[in-house]
Specification:
It contains 13 helices and eleven strands. Among the domains are: about 5-195, pyruvate-formate lyase- activating enzyme (Alpha-Beta Horseshoe); about 345-375. The longest helix has 19 residues, at about 155-175. Helix 4 (about 130-140) links the parallel strand 7 and strand 8 (about 140-150). It is globular. The protein is of the alpha/beta class.
Length: about 375
């Protein structure tokens, strides 16, 4: 519990989604849930005592009483709202019709705060053709943009090609200062330039979610997927096999330097059945973004400002296959061992054999036989 330093608080549901999950219930779930004010006070008291941060995820209900209580408590809070309920300083979640929504932002904000501090953009594969145009308009309205692709498991080969083209187009606009704004901050392109470590979501590791009912979840997406999949009632929770959520138990992700990747455990579980194994689509998207960041880092405008993003010869680390080529079996094994074995590089051979024996008591015998076969 000591590692949990923040909570997503769903004030009402269905409500706003601040990343790629869909804030929609299934047919068997309640149509509407609203967090009672007395329970919200309990959460604030807990946050005060433990110094926790709260992300307040708004719905359609009035926010005045929640915001007043949060302000009076002194708790660090971030309000996340939809485009029709903008308040100064709030993070805004947008759809894909920025021309219409922008009017609501400017109407809602005071004259000295025309730019939204943080705009979260949720995009579908079917909208990829307009991604560059959308982002180009969005940077005029927001200080920071966070893009999340929804329906990622439905991505096709053609979608990946479109995404690559759109990232290239937008990176050129950033690199050549063609957007007419002092700076551009976008999670999928510029974050990688300044990150030196992974910036994963870390749901279940550093933060959890509290539903209006008081039930707790790894993230809001788990709540909407299955409200019965609760970790417990606030402020107590129990995460079975919680170690699988940590980066230490995701060996490939642990050595991957697509640091901007969110490593979404909800997407992992839905697609691969494992918390710590990402789907191919997530890896390819993250590496396309990484490559586009490399284009920005290499631009004359930013020469010397960022560390270079070293090229890699794959998009999906699980395949370890260079684009346009292949690997022989020995080369393939060496490449996989370099990637997966990096966290064990500090151990000597005896320590590795001891660990291997714990996994499979017959492994040493098998290695000896394999070595004998090589020498025959």
């Amino acid at each position: 519990m000591d590692n949990i330093t923040s909570f997503n608080i769903i004030l009402s549901a269905p409500g706003v989604s601040h990343c790629s999950y869909e804030p929609l219930f299934g047919a068997t779930a309640p149509s509407r849930l609203v967090m009672p004010i007395p329970f919200f006070k309990e959460i604030l008291d807990y946050a005060v005592k433990r110094g926790c941060h709260l992300n307040l995820l708004a719905g359609e209900e009035p926010l005045d009483e929640y915001l007043t209580l949060a302000r009076e408590s002194g708790v660090s809070c971030l309000l996340v709202v939809g485009p029709r309920h903008v308040l100064p300083g709030a993070t805004v979640v947008a759809g894909s019709k920025i021309e219409v929504e922008r009017e609501h932002w400017f109407h809602s904000c005071p004259p000295d705060q025309e730019r939204i501090p943080h705009l979260i953009v949720r995009f579908r594969p079917s909208q990829l053709d307009s991604l560059t145009e959308f982002l180009s308009q969005a940077v005029q309205c927001a200080g920071r943009i966070s893009l999340f692709m929804t329906d990622l498991s439905s991505f096709t080969g053609e979608d990946f090609i479109k995404y690559k083209e759109q990232l290239h187009r937008f990176s050129l606009l950033v690199a050549t200062n063609a957007l007419g704004v002092p700076s551009v901050e976008c999670n999928i392109l510029t974050d990688r330039l300044v990150l030196t470590n992974p910036n994963h979501c870390d749901s279940g590791v550093t933060h959890l979610t509290v539903a209006p009912s008081g039930d707790m979840y790894l993230c809001p997406g788990f709540f909407y997927e299955n409200p019965g999949d609760s970790l417990g009632r606030f402020p107590e929770w129990d995460i079975i096999n919680s170690h699988l959520l940590s980066l230490a138990y995701a060996p490939l992700c642990a050595v991957c330097d697509a640091y901007q990747c969110r490593r979404c455990v909800l997407l992992n579980r839905k697609t691969t059945g494992e918390y710590n194994v990402p789907p191919r689509e997530a890896c390819v998207l993250a590496h396309l973004e990484r490559n586009a960041s490399a284009e920005i880092a290499a631009a004359d405008r930013f020469r010397g400002q960022f560390s270079p993003v070293i090229p890699v010869d794959y998009l999906d680390p699980f395949q370890i296959t260079p684009e346009g080529g292949g690997m022989g079996s020995d080369e393939f094994i060496e490449h996989v061992v370099q990637l997966l074995g990096a966290p064990l590089a500090h151990l000597d051979a005896f320590e590795i054999l001891k660990l291997a024996y714990r996994v499979d008591p017959m492994i040493i015998h098998k290695i000896k036989n394999l070595r004998d076969d090589f020498h025959d």
